[in-house]
């Protein structure tokens, strides 16, 4: 143990003044330090949600127009992708993409990649259900940073680039936004909204946008978060609400399986967060998942929904005209649907 005298205090004060400061440029959340889940490992990291100059500089180095890669899967190539890059007409022309098919866009989350569960689970399910163009967006260069606020900014920048890519594709295929269904998980859930809201052309909007447990941290007051009007029909499935996933309703229709948290058969928040992917995949292949209407998201979380009216969760086709919050129960293992 030691005593710090006046001279020592003066010396330390001088050192503190000499250290380079990191001014706060933006507060993404009122609570500065939070834990957020790493989608690639399931581990939690303590993150600083107040953007410093260093964060801004790191985000500025990400160029999604150059680094994003788009992997095409069709029934002609269901297991090996055909990579597409904006501006490369030779790759586009020689690929199996077709303007006659609907296009499903899959967008992964934080520290994930093209090989994440979102894609390994949904690509085969989608192609088994319908003859589609399934395009996996690999924005892992922007998502791989351990600095979550940077990844959040990169998710928005990537969304802008993804929309530009599909605008280029549509020009050469004579395609239209009405042929698209955009699906995202975690940070990718909000990115899906960014893509869809920027895509409308000549009065044509994306008919179907799905958010699979979109992220909570940093998005409560964020202007670019998923919102009901991102597409003609928007749907969110909440499976880790209030932890990794957004707690309140975000879409025209929000489903809260098992109250939106603590999924049967799961023993971790990481498992809960991923369950939205597996539920959606099963909704495509076998249907089921009938939700009971709730007064609001709080009654869904409390599992006290008694309003008349039911709606099927997920599926390949948009449920135009539907709105509201719904609750349902699932099984602990496949088949997850109870009907």
Summarize the entry for a quick read:
This protein has helices spanning 6-18, 53-60, 64-67, 89-94, 117-129, 140-143, 148-173, 187-198, 269-286, 297-302; strands spanning 24-27, 33-37, 44-48, 50-52, 69-74, 77-84, 103-107, 133-138, 180-185, 208-212, 233-237, 253-257, 290-294, 310-312, 324-328. It is of the alpha/beta class and 339 residues long.
CATH topology: Rossmann fold
For the record, the count of structural domains works out to: 1
CATH architecture grouping:
3-Layer(aba) Sandwich
Low-confidence stretches: 1-21
Strand order of the largest sheet: 6-5-8-7-9-10-11-12-15-13-14
Describe the sheet with the most strands: 11 strands, mixed
Instruction: Give the overall average pLDDT.
Output: 88
CATH homology group? Alpha/Beta hydrolase fold, catalytic domain
Strand content: 15-25%
Distance between the termini: 67 Å
Strand segment tally: 15
Shape: globular
Keywords:
alpha/beta, 15 strands, Rossmann fold, two-stranded antiparallel sheet, disordered N terminus
Note down, in words, how this protein is organized.
There is one protein chain. The protein has 339 residues and is an alpha/beta fold. The protein is built from ten helices and 15 strands. The chain has an eleven-stranded mixed β-sheet, sandwiched between helices. A two-stranded antiparallel sheet has the order 1-4. A two-stranded antiparallel ribbon has the order 2-3. It is globular and about 55 Å long. It starts with 5 loop residues before the first helix and ends in an 11-residue tail after the last strand.
């Amino acid at each position: 143990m030691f005593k710090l005298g006046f001279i020592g205090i003066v010396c330390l004060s001088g050192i503190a003044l000499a250290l380079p400061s990191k001014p706060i440029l933006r507060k993404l959340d009122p609570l500065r330090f939070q834990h957020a889940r790493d989608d690639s490992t399931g581990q939690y990291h303590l993150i600083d949600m107040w953007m410093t100059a260093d964060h801004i500089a790191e985000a500025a180095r990400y160029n999604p127009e150059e680094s994003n890669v788009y992997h095409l899967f069709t029934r002609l190539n269901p297991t090996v992708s055909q990579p597409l890059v904006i501006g490369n007409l030779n790759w586009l022309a020689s690929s199996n993409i077709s303007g006659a098919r609907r296009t499903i866009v899959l967008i992964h989350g934080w520290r994930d990649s093209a090989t994440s569960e979102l894609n390994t689970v949904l690509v085969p399910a989608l192609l088994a259900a319908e003859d589609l163009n399934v395009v996996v967006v690999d924005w892992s260069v922007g998502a791989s940073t351990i600095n979550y606020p940077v990844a959040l900014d990169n998710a928005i920048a990537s969304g802008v680039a993804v929309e530009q890519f599909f605008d280029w594709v549509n020009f050469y295929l004579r395609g239209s936004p009405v042929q698209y269904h955009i699906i995202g998980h975690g940070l990718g859930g909000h990115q899906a909204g960014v893509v869809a809201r920027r895509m409308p052309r000549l009065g044509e909007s994306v008919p179907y946008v799905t958010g699979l447990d979109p992220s909570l941290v940093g998005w409560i007051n964020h202007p670019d978060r998923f919102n009901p009007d991102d597409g003609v029909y928007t749907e969110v499935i909440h499976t880790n609400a209030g932890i990794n996933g957004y707690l309140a309703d975000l879409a025209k229709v929000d489903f809260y399986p098992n109250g939106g948290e603590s999924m049967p058969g799961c023993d971790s928040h990481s498992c809960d967060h991923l369950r939205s992917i597996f539920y959606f995949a099963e909704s495509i292949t076998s249907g089921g998942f009938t939700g009971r209407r709730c007064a609001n998201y709080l009654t869904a979380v409390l599992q006290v929904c008694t309003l008349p009216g039911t709606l099927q969760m997920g599926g390949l086709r948009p449920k135009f005209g539907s709105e509201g919050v719904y609750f349902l129960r699932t099984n602990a293992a496949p088949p997850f649907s109870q009907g």
